[in-house]
Write a structure and sequence with these properties.
Order of helices and strands: HHHHHHHEHHEHHEHEHEHEHHEHEH
Low-confidence stretches: none
CATH topology of the largest domain: Rossmann fold
Number of strands: 8
Strand order of the largest sheet: 2-1-3-4
Structural class: alpha/beta
Bound molecules: iron/sulfur cluster
CATH architecture of the largest domain: 3-Layer(aba) Sandwich
Number of domains: 3
């Protein structure tokens, strides 16, 4: 794609500051910092100066790009109105900055950990399966219905591990034959979003090779970033495996009568659309369908939802680097929005969203008044012991 057209045709209309479809701000980095240089409008101007070699980027410049979460809302608004793709420009600048070695130290640490350990946490590979201790989860065998690709957050983070455990127990109760990889590595999604294209290719090729060797029929992920990356980015490198997000599989299991709910979960539930499942992945219905089938759940919609959902601020590696945290962050606005909508539970379908929102809930003093849960955790509760 010729990106110069995009930087030169930007009209500075400001639709990437305040979405013209709901007249609300949606860009998490712009919301957090307020300056144009943290919105697509300003990033397009900086990109122009970098492409024209009028600006030699510094780490301060790089911060303006690496705080973009790749949530895609500017891209969808701008492409509908102007036919431009500001996010593609931003991601190209990140690629150039990585190539030139101009990256914030937290981004460098993230990339080094993934390269060295196969995960951004810098933990030994043997810790990848700690979440499954005592659950009897086995390795994938040829002929199994599903390969559960767990992902970095659900493997290494204590809160994420609870989601992986709920997923494994739900699959077992549904009678699904499934297994995991014995030596799973990062899917490379956030690596790609941070512009490290060569490392991404290595990870994608390694994972695709494992799927092929094992004859994997279908991959299911609890992470929308893994789902999007394997479904939309791996095929560009020649991979060919069916990939589903866990909410899509849960919808099938509900409709096929394979999930039996024996308990009521009495709660008003607001659903937060993760960007890489909703806006980027195009799946809005599956999680809502599952939630609305759980006895006792009353589903309410947030004002910023579906195509106009507000990013939690964790994408594009920001979950790991924490560069969008603090007062006024989009995750804090989001939990407040859910609480004010009368929700008892803010449900999501992404371990990064769950952790970002749970931390925000504590910062906002909403503990005990609002809970953050993954859809599969609510499903597991409704299925009973
Ligand atoms: S990037 Fe698109 S939406 Fe933003 S100011 Fe430019 S033309 Fe408008
Ligand atoms: S992709 Fe999201 S975070 Fe990045 S500039 Fe666009 S709206 Fe802002």
């Amino acid at each position: 794609m010729n990106l110069s057209r995009h930087v030169y045709y930007c009209l500075k209309c400001g639709a990437c500051r305040v979405s013209y479809q709901i007249f609300e701000p949606l860009c998490p980095s712009g919301i957090r910092f307020g300056f144009d240089s943290y919105y697509a409008i300003g990033r397009m101007e900086i990109a122009k100066a970098i492409f024209e070699k009028r600006l030699k980027p510094s780490v301060k410049t790089a911060l303006r790009f690496f705080t973009c979460t790749s949530c895609g809302v500017c891209d969808s608004d701008c492409s509908a109105a102007m036919g431009l793709r500001p996010l593609q420009v931003i991601e190209e600048v990140k690629r150039v900055l990585v190539e030139e070695g101009v990256v914030p130290s937290k981004v460098r640490d993230f990339l080094e950990n993934v390269q060295r350990y196969g995960n951004p946490y810098g933990e030994g590979r043997h810790k990848r399966r700690a979440w499954a201790e005592g659950l009897g989860v086995r390795e994938y065998r040829r002929g199994d219905e599903l390969l559960y690709y767990v992902g970095c957050v659900a493997s290494h983070d204590p809160r994420g591990r609870a989601i992986a455990r709920a997923m494994a127990s739900t699959l077992s109760k549904a009678g699904a034959s499934f297994g995991v990889l014995s030596d799973e590595s990062c899917c490379g999604g956030e690596v790609l979003r941070l512009g490290e294209v060569e490392l991404f290719k290595l990870l994608a090729e390694e994972n695709s090779r494992k799927f092929e060797q094992l004859g994997v029929a279908r991959v299911v992920t609890t992470c929308p970033h893994g789902y999007y990356t394997m479904r939309s980015e791996y095929p560009k490198l020649g991979a060919n495996v069916e990939v589903s997000h866990h909410t899509q599989l849960l919808r099938e299991l509900v409709d096929g009568g394979r999930l039996r709910f024996s308990r009521e979960v009495r709660a008003v539930v607001a659903y937060h659309d993760p960007c890489f499942l909703g806006r980027r992945g195009g799946e809005y219905e599956a999680p809502r369908h599952v939630l609305s089938n759980i006895p006792g759940v009353r589903l309410v919609e947030l004002e910023r939802s579906r195509e106009r959902s507000l990013c939690c601020g964790g994408g594009g590696g920001n979950f790991y680097t924490g560069m969008l945290g603090g007062e006024g962050s989009s995750s804090r606005l989001r939990v407040r929005e859910a609480y004010e909508a009368g929700a008892d539970v803010l449900a999501t379908a992404c371990p990064m969203c769950a952790i970002m929102l749970e931390d925000a809930l504590k910062d906002e003093g909403l503990e005990g008044r609002l809970r953050v849960r993954d859809v599969v955790e609510i499903v597991a509760e409704a299925m009973g012991p």
